[in-house]
Amino acid sequence: MSTNTNPPRIVVGYDGSEEARQAVEWAADEAERTAVQLQIVNAYQILWPGAYYATFTEQTGAAQEAAQKLVGGIAERIRARGTGIDVVGLSVDAPPASTLLELGDAGARLLVVGNRGSGGLTNLFMGSVSQQVATHARVPVAVVRGRTAVTYGPVVVGVDGSDSGADALGLAFAAARARGVELVAIRAHLIPAQPSLPARDVEEYERAALDASLAPWLQQYPDVKVEALVTAGRAARVLIGVSHTAQLVVVGSRGHGGFAGLLVGSVGQQLMHHAECPVLIAHERRDA
């Protein structure tokens, strides 16, 4: 498997399913916006009983040919857009999740997966592949789901003051600028059953914390219009609620406070299952 780290690129998994096609189309749009290479990957595994018999070589050749045809077809479809982006197709006999994770480690700027899959990327998202990629990647991961083709509506980002939340803010500001749309930054907090502070004091504290998180990014992206919202409620419910008008929701891979346990806890999981638009999970780049 090629691990060329020279060109900045977006890597997307493809298995021929409709959901995977939507993921490729979304990834191609992102590659066009950011002027990077698009690498479309079909990872498959030959696990049928024939592998133990004399027909193995013939079956292997047929599987390789089918995978190459599959990925070649979708690559040509993207090239036919005529946008001029560099499109590379890759088919490999290897576990899908580890293949995508390795490509992320090898220098991908972004990994993209669909919300379901079949064939080479069996049960993508609802099974183990998307879950593994979104959880273990060391680069940002986009889970393409819901209204995948919309180009209107804001970019929404969950803010909680954590390091992971800061990574999400960086991605969200960049995404809003690239799309030319407003950024909606939301800090959610829970109200205790027996609050020790007046609601006004809590609101002021949360507002100050949100403003502090946004301040450095507002200086770096003065051209991005930002709406900053503080709201009481569970983070997952809040973000899922606003996803029906957003074109992208950005969250950190882990968090604390209002977004406690993000991704490995309930919030990220619920977004990946129920958001009505693509979800971008921020993972800090950690080069090996």
Structure at a glance:
Helices cover about 40% and strands about 20% of the residues. It is α/β, with parallel strands linked by helices and about 290 residues long. It has two domains: about 10-145, HUPs (Rossmann fold); about 155-280, HUPs (Rossmann fold).
Architecture overview:
This protein has 288 residues and is an alpha/beta fold. It is built from 8 helices and 10 strands. Helices cover 40% and strands 19% of the residues. A 10-stranded mixed sheet has the order 3-2-1-4-5-10-9-6-7-8, sandwiched between helices. Helix 3 runs parallel beside helix 4 (129-136) and helix 7 runs parallel beside helix 8. It is elongated and about 75 Å long.
First and last CA, distance: 18 Å
SS strand fraction: 15-25%
Can you give the helix content as a percent range? 25-40%
Count the E strands: 10
Q: pLDDT below 50 for ≥5 consecutive residues: which ranges?
A: 117-126, 257-265
**CATH topology annotation of the largest domain:** Rossmann fold
Coarse morphology: elongated
* Name of the top-level CATH class of the largest domain: Alpha Beta
Q: How many H/I helices?
A: 8
Order of strands, widest sheet = 3-2-1-4-5-10-9-6-7-8
CATH superfamily of the largest domain: HUPs
The biggest beta sheet is recorded as: 10 strands, mixed
Q: How many domain regions? A: 2
What CATH architecture label of the largest domain applies? Answer: 3-Layer(aba) Sandwich
> Mean pLDDT across all residues, rounded?
85
Which SSEs are present, and which pair or pack?
Blueprint: E1 9-13, H1 18-34, E2 37-44, H2 56-79, E3 87-93, H3 96-105, E4 110-114, H4 129-136, E5 141-144, E6 155-158, H5 163-179, E7 183-189, H6 199-220, E8 226-232, H7 235-242, E9 248-252, H8 266-274, E10 279-282
Parallel strand pairs: 1-2, 1-4, 2-3, 4-5, 6-7, 6-9, 7-8, 9-10
Antiparallel strand pairs: 5-10
